[in-house]
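Reopening closed ticket. The problem is back. First fold of the pair:
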Amino acid sequence: MIECTKWTEVNKGALWGFADIYIAKSDQDVYGCSVFRSNGKTWMNWPSRDYEDKEGKKKFWPHVKYRNAKTDEAFKAAALAVILKKAEESKVFTDQQYELPLDDELPF
Protein backbone atom coordinates (compact mmCIF):
# COMPACT_ATOMS: atom_id res chain seq x y z
CA MET A 1 0.00 0.00 0.00
CA ILE A 2 1.12 3.53 -0.80
CA GLU A 3 -0.28 6.54 1.03
CA CYS A 4 0.16 10.23 0.27
CA THR A 5 0.75 11.78 3.70
CA LYS A 6 1.19 15.39 2.56
CA TRP A 7 0.40 17.43 -0.55
CA THR A 8 1.65 20.97 -1.16
CA GLU A 9 0.46 22.72 -4.30
CA VAL A 10 3.02 25.09 -5.88
CA ASN A 11 1.91 25.87 -9.48
CA LYS A 12 5.21 27.22 -10.76
CA GLY A 13 5.62 26.52 -14.46
CA ALA A 14 5.12 22.79 -15.03
CA LEU A 15 5.72 22.07 -11.33
CA TRP A 16 2.30 21.42 -9.82
CA GLY A 17 3.44 20.55 -6.31
CA PHE A 18 5.26 18.31 -3.84
CA ALA A 19 4.08 15.16 -2.11
CA ASP A 20 5.30 13.05 0.78
CA ILE A 21 4.45 9.36 0.50
CA TYR A 22 4.48 6.37 2.83
CA ILE A 23 5.26 2.89 1.50
CA ALA A 24 3.72 0.43 3.95
CA LYS A 25 5.40 -2.72 2.61
CA SER A 26 8.86 -1.36 3.39
CA ASP A 27 7.73 0.94 6.25
CA GLN A 28 9.37 3.83 4.42
CA ASP A 29 8.60 7.54 4.13
CA VAL A 30 9.70 9.46 1.04
CA TYR A 31 9.62 13.24 1.37
CA GLY A 32 9.51 15.79 -1.42
CA CYS A 33 8.36 13.89 -4.52
CA SER A 34 7.78 16.46 -7.26
CA VAL A 35 4.63 16.35 -9.37
CA PHE A 36 4.46 18.03 -12.78
CA ARG A 37 1.69 18.90 -15.25
CA SER A 38 2.35 19.85 -18.85
CA ASN A 39 0.70 19.31 -22.23
CA GLY A 40 -2.19 17.37 -20.69
CA LYS A 41 0.11 14.95 -18.84
CA THR A 42 0.84 14.56 -15.14
CA TRP A 43 3.84 12.71 -13.72
CA MET A 44 5.76 12.20 -10.48
CA ASN A 45 9.52 12.33 -9.94
CA TRP A 46 11.49 11.06 -6.99
CA PRO A 47 13.14 13.66 -4.74
CA SER A 48 16.30 14.81 -6.48
CA ARG A 49 19.11 17.32 -6.58
CA ASP A 50 20.15 19.32 -9.60
CA TYR A 51 23.58 19.48 -11.21
CA GLU A 52 25.17 20.62 -14.47
CA ASP A 53 26.45 18.08 -16.97
CA LYS A 54 29.62 18.50 -19.05
CA GLU A 55 27.78 20.72 -21.55
CA GLY A 56 26.46 22.97 -18.77
CA LYS A 57 22.89 21.64 -19.03
CA LYS A 58 20.83 21.37 -15.85
CA LYS A 59 20.12 17.74 -14.93
CA PHE A 60 18.54 16.03 -11.93
CA TRP A 61 19.87 13.10 -9.90
CA PRO A 62 17.18 11.15 -7.99
CA HIS A 63 17.83 10.33 -4.34
CA VAL A 64 15.71 7.16 -4.63
CA LYS A 65 14.75 4.85 -7.49
CA TYR A 66 14.14 1.22 -8.34
CA ARG A 67 16.94 -0.40 -10.31
CA ASN A 68 14.49 -1.96 -12.75
CA ALA A 69 13.03 0.80 -14.96
CA LYS A 70 9.68 -0.97 -15.40
CA THR A 71 9.32 -1.37 -11.63
CA ASP A 72 10.25 2.29 -11.13
CA GLU A 73 7.66 3.49 -13.66
CA ALA A 74 4.97 1.15 -12.24
CA PHE A 75 5.62 2.40 -8.72
CA LYS A 76 5.52 6.05 -9.80
CA ALA A 77 2.20 5.44 -11.58
CA ALA A 78 0.71 3.87 -8.42
CA ALA A 79 2.09 6.67 -6.24
CA LEU A 80 0.74 9.30 -8.62
CA ALA A 81 -2.76 7.81 -8.30
CA VAL A 82 -2.78 8.30 -4.51
CA ILE A 83 -1.16 11.74 -4.85
CA LEU A 84 -3.90 12.84 -7.26
CA LYS A 85 -6.53 11.64 -4.79
CA LYS A 86 -4.89 13.61 -1.96
CA ALA A 87 -4.60 16.71 -4.18
CA GLU A 88 -8.29 16.47 -5.08
CA GLU A 89 -9.25 16.11 -1.40
CA SER A 90 -7.12 19.17 -0.58
CA LYS A 91 -8.73 21.15 -3.38
CA VAL A 92 -12.24 20.35 -2.17
CA PHE A 93 -11.28 21.52 1.31
CA THR A 94 -9.57 24.75 0.20
CA ASP A 95 -12.33 25.64 -2.27
CA GLN A 96 -14.97 25.74 0.47
CA GLN A 97 -16.25 29.20 1.29
CA TYR A 98 -16.55 30.35 4.88
CA GLU A 99 -18.26 33.46 6.17
CA LEU A 100 -17.26 35.00 9.47
CA PRO A 101 -19.91 36.65 11.61
CA LEU A 102 -18.35 40.11 11.39
CA ASP A 103 -21.13 41.77 13.42
CA ASP A 104 -20.51 39.51 16.41
CA GLU A 105 -17.55 39.47 18.72
CA LEU A 106 -15.09 36.74 17.92
CA PRO A 107 -14.29 34.40 20.84
CA PHE A 108 -10.52 34.76 20.43
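Second fold of the pair, where the issue appears:
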Amino acid sequence: MSPITRWTTEPEPAAEVAQIARDFHWFQTLTTERDVILAVDFNYPPTSPKMGPIRNLPDIVNLIPAGTLTTLKASGQGFSSWYDHLYVNGQATTEATGDD
Protein backbone atom coordinates (compact mmCIF):
# COMPACT_ATOMS: atom_id res chain seq x y z
CA MET A 1 0.00 0.00 0.00
CA SER A 2 1.36 3.45 -0.94
CA PRO A 3 0.07 6.63 0.68
CA ILE A 4 0.24 9.83 -1.38
CA THR A 5 0.56 13.22 0.29
CA ARG A 6 0.22 16.20 -2.00
CA TRP A 7 -0.61 19.84 -1.48
CA THR A 8 -1.18 22.05 -4.46
CA THR A 9 -1.09 25.74 -5.09
CA GLU A 10 -3.49 25.51 -8.02
CA PRO A 11 -5.67 28.65 -8.02
CA GLU A 12 -8.54 26.72 -9.65
CA PRO A 13 -9.84 23.71 -7.66
CA ALA A 14 -10.91 21.89 -10.85
CA ALA A 15 -7.28 22.04 -12.07
CA GLU A 16 -6.21 20.60 -8.72
CA VAL A 17 -8.60 17.65 -9.15
CA ALA A 18 -7.20 16.96 -12.62
CA GLN A 19 -3.58 17.15 -11.39
CA ILE A 20 -4.24 14.80 -8.47
CA ALA A 21 -5.93 12.33 -10.83
CA ARG A 22 -2.75 12.39 -12.97
CA ASP A 23 -0.61 11.92 -9.85
CA PHE A 24 -2.71 8.96 -8.70
CA HIS A 25 -2.34 7.31 -12.11
CA TRP A 26 1.41 8.05 -12.18
CA PHE A 27 1.95 6.49 -8.74
CA GLN A 28 0.14 3.35 -9.91
CA THR A 29 2.48 3.02 -12.90
CA LEU A 30 5.66 3.83 -10.95
CA THR A 31 6.19 0.24 -9.75
CA THR A 32 4.29 -3.02 -9.76
CA GLU A 33 2.54 -1.80 -6.58
CA ARG A 34 -0.89 -0.53 -7.65
CA ASP A 35 -2.44 -0.53 -4.18
CA VAL A 36 -2.63 3.26 -3.79
CA ILE A 37 -5.05 5.11 -1.51
CA LEU A 38 -6.25 8.64 -2.24
CA ALA A 39 -7.89 10.46 0.68
CA VAL A 40 -9.07 13.94 -0.28
CA ASP A 41 -11.41 16.80 0.53
CA PHE A 42 -12.02 18.90 -2.58
CA ASN A 43 -15.20 20.58 -1.29
CA TYR A 44 -17.09 18.86 -4.11
CA PRO A 45 -19.35 15.82 -3.94
CA PRO A 46 -18.01 12.95 -6.06
CA THR A 47 -20.93 13.44 -8.45
CA SER A 48 -19.75 16.96 -9.37
CA PRO A 49 -18.57 17.36 -12.98
CA LYS A 50 -15.34 18.80 -11.53
CA MET A 51 -14.59 15.36 -10.04
CA GLY A 52 -14.69 13.73 -13.50
CA PRO A 53 -10.89 13.29 -13.80
CA ILE A 54 -10.88 11.12 -10.67
CA ARG A 55 -14.16 9.32 -11.41
CA ASN A 56 -12.78 8.38 -14.85
CA LEU A 57 -9.64 6.68 -13.52
CA PRO A 58 -9.60 2.95 -14.36
CA ASP A 59 -11.20 0.76 -11.67
CA ILE A 60 -11.54 3.68 -9.22
CA VAL A 61 -13.77 3.09 -6.18
CA ASN A 62 -14.86 5.65 -3.58
CA LEU A 63 -15.01 3.79 -0.25
CA ILE A 64 -17.20 6.47 1.37
CA PRO A 65 -20.78 5.27 0.74
CA ALA A 66 -22.89 7.40 -1.60
CA GLY A 67 -24.60 10.29 0.14
CA THR A 68 -22.61 10.02 3.38
CA LEU A 69 -22.38 13.43 5.02
CA THR A 70 -18.77 13.98 6.10
CA THR A 71 -18.37 17.74 6.68
CA LEU A 72 -19.21 19.25 10.06
CA LYS A 73 -21.72 22.07 10.08
CA ALA A 74 -20.41 25.47 11.17
CA SER A 75 -22.50 25.21 14.32
CA GLY A 76 -20.77 21.92 15.15
CA GLN A 77 -24.11 20.14 15.29
CA GLY A 78 -24.17 17.38 12.74
CA PHE A 79 -22.90 17.00 9.21
CA SER A 80 -23.77 18.87 6.04
CA SER A 81 -21.93 17.69 2.90
CA TRP A 82 -20.41 14.69 1.13
CA TYR A 83 -17.04 16.34 0.49
CA ASP A 84 -14.53 13.84 1.90
CA HIS A 85 -13.41 11.00 -0.32
CA LEU A 86 -11.38 7.82 0.05
CA TYR A 87 -10.49 6.36 -3.36
CA VAL A 88 -8.73 3.11 -4.24
CA ASN A 89 -8.27 0.99 -7.33
CA GLY A 90 -10.93 -1.69 -6.81
CA GLN A 91 -8.86 -4.30 -8.66
CA ALA A 92 -5.57 -3.64 -6.83
CA THR A 93 -6.91 -2.95 -3.35
CA THR A 94 -8.79 -6.12 -2.56
CA GLU A 95 -8.79 -5.39 1.19
CA ALA A 96 -11.34 -2.66 0.44
CA THR A 97 -13.77 -5.11 -1.10
CA GLY A 98 -13.29 -7.95 1.37
CA ASP A 99 -12.13 -10.22 -1.48
CA ASP A 100 -8.61 -10.52 -0.08
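Update: turned out to be a display glitch only; the data is intact. Residues 37 and 88 are 5 Å apart (CA to CA). The first helix runs from residue 13 to 30. Please close again.
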